[in-house]
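Why predict the complex rather than its parts? Because the way molecules touch one another can change local conformation, and only a joint prediction can capture that. The input here totals 706 residues.
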Amino acid sequence: MDNQAAFPSRSDNLFQTPIAFLKGVGEKRADILKTELQIYTFADLLLYYPFRYEDRSSFHHIGDITEENAAVQLKGIMRNIQLWGEGTKKRLEATLEDDTGIVKLVWFSGANWIKNKLTEGKTYIVYGKPNLYGRNFSISHPDFELFSPEKEKKTSLIPVYHTTEKCKRVGMDSRALVELQKELLRTVHKEIRESLPDSLLSQNQLLDRRNALISIHFPKNEPLLRQARRRLKYEELFFIQLQLLQGRVARIENNAGIIFSKVEKLNLFYKEHLPFDLTNAQKRVLREIYQDLKSGKQMNRLLQGDVGSGKTIVAFICMLMAYDNGAQSCLMAPTEILAEQHYQSLLVFAKKLGIKITLLTGSTKEKTRRVLLEELADGQLDMIVGTHALLEDRVQFKNLGLCIIDEQHRFGVAQRAKLWQKNDQAFPHILVMTATPIPRTLAMTLYGDLDLSLIDELPAGRKPIKTVHRFDAHRLRVFGFLRHQIQEGRQVYIVYPLIEESEKMDLKSLEDGYESVKRAFPDIPIGILHGRMLPKDKDFEMQRFVKGETKIMVATTVIEVGVNVPNASVMIIENAERFGLSQLHQLRGRVGRGGYQSYCILMTSHKLSADGKRRMDTMVRTNNGFEIADEDLKLRGAGNLAGTQQSGAVSLTIADLAQDGEILTTARQNALDILEADPQLTQYQILKQQLEALRKKEPIQWSEIS
Ligand code: ADP
Ligand code: MG
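Output of the joint prediction:
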């Protein structure tokens, strides 16, 4: 969210004042503030929040200091002020004494200057981190100021601001920022206007905006700080949700959807060709989709389903709905292997119903392609599966009614937008499918304008995958287990984290791995698969494995998404500590797809970081994709999760998606309620103004994030 925009127009001018005009700043420091901290205006500075606070609300007894103490605030008499050493080694020492003990103070730089500021025998307030030196505690470079009774009364939580080395070199350290904030608040506090309607303030017991902004910088006490934080987080999340949901309301009103109401072939398929009973979750999701498709509104739905939950058949059934209503449909996958696999699965269904379906990828032959494109353009072809080759301009549809996009996070926003512009009469319905579970909080922020469907149930009879963590030293035993599984008729994946040949030395290269597996299993056919192979070679290797001709597939993460070989029962992940949680989970999802008991073996060396250990433990503990996604969010922070980087939607100023789920849920519900009762916000001028300001500042492409 853009900071500056969060101010209503009335006081725009004051808050948009260039920072150079603040008393105590000036041109030179203004330049540093701009380049180092992106603070250009009064508003930017006001919204530059402290990242922590120092507790100056009480004094510590010197005699109570222990090694556990972080920074402490002391009050005592300054004695023994003395310079030591020469030149660059010169240092200043002093002692501080209270009724309970003595602590040493040391300054290694600015010794002369500081000496002049200290007076023997006077009482000082000193703040710093004590370190044990021999048997005594000492504090290097403590903060200090002369004690006076008034100071004791007003000391409280002192804000600490992030600054950079460059800032500090020109004296713009945290303390200097504290002074600037004080000056700024003196100048502007009367002009700070509320941005939320009273109803929301009272309903959620939120602090008013002026108090919140004052208290976030200069909290009088902990409870007030907590309230300020909650209020500002709420505000940030609320306006994101309001924008997202407003976009959704507008889209629903403006984009007429093609109506799919006939279900002829669909019924036939249900009656005669359904290969298994759908799970309740699949049925529910299909109902939700069907409601959309016959509603006359354009569908924009995100379908989340853990690996193996059966999204493919849901996709096909949706495509059937389009077919029954004379519309074409397409399914786009992120890789050729995946597109091929989807094509093969859908082909089986389509054949039974006499429906024409085809595949288009980068390696489709020109001759085939020309025919295919013609058939697509004149409507002979009903369904097409493909890679991003589908996005090319020469791919024209006669009547594209439904786009399904699998494994969403691999496609860029702009790429996807291209797809639904392939029908100039009406926007096709959009179904985005993802097997990357996104924590609810993140989904609400990233896809807040999409409707959400969830397949939260695996087909019956699936045995949960058993996951274990083994150290490299146990490789022989692991290989013994592999041999046993292969003798039972199963197949095995062995995955290496190699991505590029330039990967670090300590990574076992895929090829070395392949050689050693070959040595261990001289009698067993082994395949190899990695991203640098030609598509036709990849395809060849994959097909051999699918057909069961090879028993072991040594691969990189190219097999991460979608590949479906139900007979594969073991997934070994080498150097597992190199993978993020969600990637590990995706990889694990390649097994456990048939009725066999499946295993995931995470191999690591004994050297394992705390973080790495936690990832392994999480994988061993749970099979639940959403639990894993939540843990991933906690470990890595929202900005690093797959698919979120390019959206910018998670660059929050104060809210934290990993922690503020509750505030987010409330804010979203409040925004929904308001928009449902009053879509044009006629009763909420205050919100309209705020949105207007936000829009002017930053053309957020929320509606395109779909
Ligand atoms: P994903 O959601 O990971 O794309 P798939 O669609 O590939 O999952 O389905 C995984 C496997 O489960 C496939 O072999 C599929 O045929 C099977 N499957 C899907 N739905 C069901 C069901 N309701 N009952 C039994 N098997 C199912
Ligand atoms: Mg899939």
